[in-house]
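Input for the complex:
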Amino acid sequence: MPRPRPPRPPRTSDRALITLDLNGERTPVAFAPHKTLLEVLREDLGLTGTKHGCELGECGTCTVLLDDQPVLSCLVLAAACDGRRVRTVEGMGGSRLHPLQETFADLGAAQCGYCTPGFLLAARALLERNPAPTRDQIREALSGNLCRCTGYLKIYEAVELAAARLRGETAEPKPETLYGLR
Amino acid sequence: MACGRERVVGKPQRKVDAVGKVTGRTRFADDLALPRMLYCRLLRSPHAHARILAIDTARAAALDGVRAVLTGAALPLPFGILPVSQDEHALALDRVRFIGDPVAAVAAVSEEIATAALDLIDVTYEPLPAIADPEAAIAPAETPIHDYGDAGNLHKLVSLEFGDVAEALARADHVREDLFFYGGSTHLAMEQHAALADWSPDGKLTLWSSTQTPHYVHRALARVLELPPARIRVIATPNGGGFGGKSDPFGHEIVVAKLAMLTGRPVKITLTREEVFYCHRGRHPTLMWVRTGVTRDGRITGMHFRTLLDGGGYGSYGVASTYYTGALQTVTYQVERYKFEGARAFTNKAPCGPKRGHGTPQPRFALEVQMDKLAEDLGIDPAELRLRHLAPPNSVTANYLRIGSMGLGTCIEKVMAGAGWKARHGRLGPGRGLGLACSSYLSGAGLPIYWNDMPHSGVQLKCDRGGGVTVFCGSTDIGQGSDSILASIVAEVLGVAMGDVSVMTADTDLTPVDLGSYSSRVTLMSGNAALQAAERARAILARHAAHKLTVPAERLVFAAGRVFDAEHPETGMTLAEAVQLAEAEEGTVGTVGSYTPPRSPGRYRGAGVGPSPAYSYSAAIAEVAVDPDTGIVRVPKIWVAHDVGRCINPATVMGQVEGSVYMGLGEALMEDMAYRPNRRLLHKIPSLLEYKSPTTLEMCDVETYLIEDPDPNGPFGAKEVGQGPLLPIPPAVANAVYDALGVRIDEVPITPEKVLKALKDKARGAGRYGPDRFPDITWPAPTVVAPPWEGGDGRAAPSPGASPSPSASERQH
Amino acid sequence: MLRLPEFRFFQPATLKQALALKADAGPDGMYVAGGTDLYPNMKRRHQEPRVVISLAGIRALRKQPAARRNGGTADGGYALGAGLTLTEIVEHRRLRKHYPVVARAAELISTPLLRNMGTLGGNLCLDTRCNYYNQSYEWRKAIDFCMKKDGAICWVAPSSPRCWAVQSSDLAPVMVALDARLRLVGPSGERVVPAAEFYRNDGIAYLTKQPDEIVAEVTLPAASGWDATYHKLRRRGAFDFPVLGVAAWVRWDGADVADARIVLGGIASYPQVVPDAARAIRGTRLEEDAVQVAADTAAGPAKPMDNTDFGLSWRKEMTRVYVRRALEELRDRRR
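Predicted:
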């Protein structure tokens, strides 16, 4: 029976050099070639807004947008992203919040906030494809993101409210959302 | 306390940290980095129980890039959250007690090198027989897991009796005896534990850690590292979820501190998801036996409750957990006489500790399902049965817990109306059902973890000449919004905007002690401390403003950043001006506030677990659809009503209710800390894929009723909300499954396999799945305390040779 | 964090380049498509290729679903590039229309995020899975590893001479039920393999494909005259692999079943065809008793092991229920 190879410490000093279209800016970055996009964002680009919950693709916490599609950055090789468009939570909003960020903040859809960047980007991708999603469509689109704090309900409501506003409607949260039933 | 005319309190506010969280600016522990930082990884035991005979770290130390290797010998002083069970070492000294128990640590220039180095550490183990479950723990052991405990591998035995329960049962009109089992589950916070330590050559240690309890970590570091506490600074980073999983001081926190001291470089550790399963400190799997006697109309004359907890390899909060499995049975429905026997066993698995609800969800499940069975026996509607015999407000229970406000009746009525209980219970047709359950939870434990006479929470307030206010408090925001509570209360009292209040928390150098975010204590305790500090500041400012404006201080209103005459609002000044006046007259304006819970009436050994300044109450009705061919249980909707006393921020209250329902649903249906007893006692599924946590597709719709009946002990009347609403969910689902298919699943989680087995069992007569025996345990002689209404004074009856009142150390528990 | 081991990464533009890179690397080289199976496995040290050859940039693998017109299949089947992502399969309007069972099975895989990355070929070649295997290096070391990787014993059947890791793809049973064809491209040329012959009932050597061959294309039979469905059993509605999958295919002759195939996934090391169950419905109209016989017959050969979520006896019982439901669906659609 073959003996297992013990874990090898990295030996290479090779660096991959790529240029990302990162949050709308041409961004060159060099890194050890076997690193994932998650690791490069956090460790080589200093963008710690993208979080990690498992690094195996089992929770959605590391969601980023790659060429407009929500993907698991823990399973994307950074070296495969040369010239591609990457959007992270840091690129949402600027001096003003993106409507999704506004509604997540106002409705309490971010409790501990750890899963929030992943949900924001998955929701953003949904609304870019489908500006008027039903509650079921929102559930489906977010079914790959785990949250342990909110029970998801305020997240749905925040997505719906932001979607309405992005469609140009003046919309406010229903009173029951914020006060409960009395 | 003023109600109804507030500007901030009672309104949905954006949390003070909301923008940080939605922009990714919030820095969690693993987001931190310092120059020349080293990375730490831990080598963990592959054996469930073994002696460590030798550790050879030479090959690891020689690996290029490794800067230090540590073993237990470098940290020989034990620690543990509870003074009575300081049975942990930062790295195992001579024994490992579960697979995953940390044994050695490496600090290296990269995480990858540290990982590779682990495989170069040679540990020689002598495996010992492993104890897989509490039944095995009861038998006498050749090599007990610990060299302390009440009896061999039984860590703790509790025996309390409040009134002659045998007599009460004998004269009851009806007696039921039931067995239940509540499985183990873990917190599964999305953020993995992480800590960063920095040591400066002038002898100052700083630790950033994702912890709910920086004060307790501070104490543990001082003890194990033998450093003066004044030279240690612990900063709790925002927790990416806690739920009780980050409330123990952990070995890895001490290890990185030690490595930083040894190397002179910052050292960071981030646990992998699998390692978080080994940290655990989650729900104790608990076997329960309950014998209850009732009158014909359903009043409980006597209840005898036994629990057996599977504690895992170490003490953690387990002694408190054991008491908690026997404490709150009396605060919802009247119980005239009560007897509790509880045992916690050491087993060779990851240690159990406090998970949301801390020892109370298990007995609550048993009680609520038994109540349903009693209702059926007596021919009374289950909701009606509960409504008839609610514990009264402002009363003391048989076990000396003082109840203040008690809104459970309203909660039950709300969910009954919302769910259409009367029309639909028992009438939804085969495979569909409704189930009701209730619960209660503490708004903070009445006693601190270590005995002392000091406040449980402290706040310092700084008033700036520019009109801004800063609140300093040791409390820790774990996502529940505690920082925002502080800001809301201060903003309310001083009449400033939330945005003008800065909150500085959870830093042992800068903030006064708050005991931590556990037992749902923070809103009530730090809130009251903040209220006191703010009111004192208001008094100082009012005195000077009144003098300047020649208006009686009682007529002054603080609102919209101004201080003005209630009768002539144009007569006033800005808050900033008031601060400047005060500062000119008496110097820097700063106040303090603190909070100590009222002393509870219990005076017996064990009376310290259970009391609280206020209890929240919850009621839930679950609607289920069960497929009789597969046993699969779906929960489309839950109605929940929570008596919160008062919402400081209704939006965050809603979030806590919905999140608690979610977590209760996960436990009810699918969460399970499973081990393989036939495979060396490995954890079966230490991953986010295999440990099942509900996705968006499993989460039910929730209709939430918030009941506000202000409690005099809470700030603005507020009680807890972070844990209470979890408790009724598993029993409501179990009761609904019974309504749907006529089978009793007396176990959590309620899985399809169990439902199918119960259905087959039903075809043969009974229709139940659950435990069928409670093992024989030699219980100690009970501490006997007469209930209040039988002439009791909260003290134990003297037993021959024992002192009548507990010693100081015993008073903790 | 769990991290990948070091490796050299190549992104060839053509199949020829990919094959050459693999030939150079020998057993130290592996292909990767979406990475959603290989990278987690590499992080847990199941596979540690020193050379990883990405297939993502090879246009020839991304043939959009289209009806075949020339040569090869006389019956005009539908061809899909193996490099298409699962999302592309799910959302392709004509594929959804003509082969809804394929879109449905693809949509049941994992989560929307993973489907944006994982590919058809990758899912068909999915590594077999087991609770004792899909664990970290340290966990597996504590159990002295297992027969599938670095050890000698199959922990789910310790006295067995073979590995019992489970076939966990949702598309595999469907492709076997449809009798789809896989076109493989290798160093010595191309070959076409019927889906049923692509898999082997062994947890370790579970594909008949050689390690240096690349799945280029999957051809589905012409869309008329038959119907098929796929039912998946798992704990949650997302993330989870099947603990049981039932793919059922029938060819109709008027109101009668002229031919049938029933394939079980998630309960053996390969997609398990249950020919006796199919035989039980041939010549019937899928009446209740015929369906019941087929369901009971299908459950017989189902031998799930204790290496997935849920217990094995329940999964076996569910075989009966799910085969029945799949056949009832086909019957109800016919009416």
